[in-house]
Amino acid sequence: MVHERLLPDKSVALARLMYAAWELGLDGSSSTAADLLVVATRKFLKNIITAVIGRRKGYRIENNFVHGVGEPVSNPWLRNVASRPAKKFHSLKCDPTENGILTPAERPSHEYLEEDIAFKLASSDCDTIPLPITLYDLIATLKVYPSLVASNFVYTVNCERIWARICHPSWDD
Question: Which CDD domains match (predicted)?
Answer without folding.
Answer: HFD_TADA1
